[in-house]
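Please, structure for the following, as tokens.
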Amino acid sequence: MQNNLRDEHMDRLFQAILELQDMDQCYALFSDLCTVNELLAMKQRFWVARLLKEGYIYSDIVEITGASTATISRVNRCLQYGDGGYSQALQSKKAEE
């Protein structure tokens, strides 16, 4: 993560997320914290990451998800050169379901 994002307040946010107990609590926090469009964008990026990891090509991902090639490229760049967050999250058995 970029060092300019890491501070006490971000740590508190992430700690609160880590302490959520179930899916309903996640929905409650994120629906309060984010706009619908922000949530939909995050959902789409995570979906794109999964498809890229599974070997799908850009044109298929555009058709399946409706994501722009710019979004797909950004997610792919994160998968290749990022901090590994997508890869770690995608290794979860529940993320695969």
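The two ends are 27 Å apart (CA to CA). The mean pLDDT is 93.
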